[in-house]
Amino acid sequence: MDPQLIEAGKETISRGVGWLKRNQSQIATLSDLSAHYKAPYLYAAIGDPVQGRHYAKLIFEKYQKADGDFRTAEKEKGWAHLACSPANRYIYSNGWVICGLRRLGYYGAAEKGMNFVRRFQTPKMGGFASRFEVHSGNVNLRFLDSSSTSSAGLALLACGDIKTAIQAGEFILRLLDAQPDPDKYYYCSWDEESGLMTDIWGNEDTGALRGRKQFCLSTETDPRYELTWLVGKPMKFLAKLYDMTGENRFLEGARRLLSFFERLDHERVHNYGSCKIMWASAELYRLTGETHFAKTAEEIFQWFCESMTPEGIWVHGLWYKHAEEQPLAASLDAVQELCAEMSDTIFELAV
């Protein structure tokens, strides 16, 4: 990685962390878990032990419930500003929390959280369920998806459960093999009764609970308004799984996901959700030495350096046009994730 780009990235991370520090008192007033779930991972990644300890303790004492789940209240997951997230990928946030807690050394809380997540895995497919009924405490094992599976899989790897993580990775590979039109669409969800969920067309609203974009990434629309992380998250998981096992099938699965991403037009880079492509590509460069992975990561990395606002945040263009209309919780989600993943990317590419 070019030294100047590294310095630009470090400066960008510093500005983002500075924004977090300047707004600490306001951030502390937010009760919704969506504002805090990526913080443990961030502060572990950038090496801030004080803030890391603060957020690990907060997550453990305030948000982890008796069943091991992390949620805002006993009968409320959270995400008031983006209900489609837990509705379609309930344990996506759990994986972030568990990985962060493991990096910070909160092994007990992480394992308790992992035991809750394990309830979502189906014995038949090895994938993880998308939906959970908070009031009844029941997991709906009919519907699975690659984001929930990949978030759970990353947590499994962090906790050392390699056998179960491999089963999750095999589900991702089966999902890839089942794609009916792999040059145009990536369908990310599976129905245990009927297979790959392709009957999802009709509503193009990005935030619609059951809209097309929640279940399918298309190469035929403007990629700035697509959920590009639908391929980025499983790509990161398969990269980690390849690192752990050395099995080429997982590397090839990650390549297939990147190839699909590259079928989108060049605006694919200008999407907050593409941070996970950056994150995964950087690790794949470390694992393979292939320069294409490094170039992909660096191109996205540079755009994030350039697109940060003067105050030190990013505006999530999928849902908001201006910083003023973006809820604080959404700004926190973006800053915490991007600063963490940019730090990881520097680590992977700093040779």
Give a verbal description of the structure:
- With 351 residues, the protein is an alpha+beta fold.
- It has one domain (32-288): Glycosyltransferase, CATH 1.50.10.10.
- It has 14 helices and 6 strands.
- The strands form 2 sheets. It has a 4-stranded antiparallel β-sheet with strand order 1-2-4-5.
- A hairpin with a 3-residue loop joins strand 4 (189-191) and strand 5 (195-196).
- The protein is globular, with a radius of gyration of 19 Å.
Write the layout of secondary structure elements.
Elements: H1 3-22, H2 24-27, H3 39-46, H4 49-63, H5 84-88, H6 92-104, H7 107-118, E1 129-133, E2 138-145, H8 146-158, H9 162-177, E3 185-187, E4 189-191, E5 195-196, E6 216-218, H10 229-245, H11 248-261, H12 275-288, H13 291-307, H14 328-349
Antiparallel strand pairs: 1-2, 2-4, 3-6, 4-5
Helix pairs in contact: 1-13, 1-14, 3-4, 3-6, 3-14, 4-6, 6-7, 6-8, 8-9, 8-10, 9-10, 9-11, 10-11, 10-12, 12-13, 12-14, 13-14
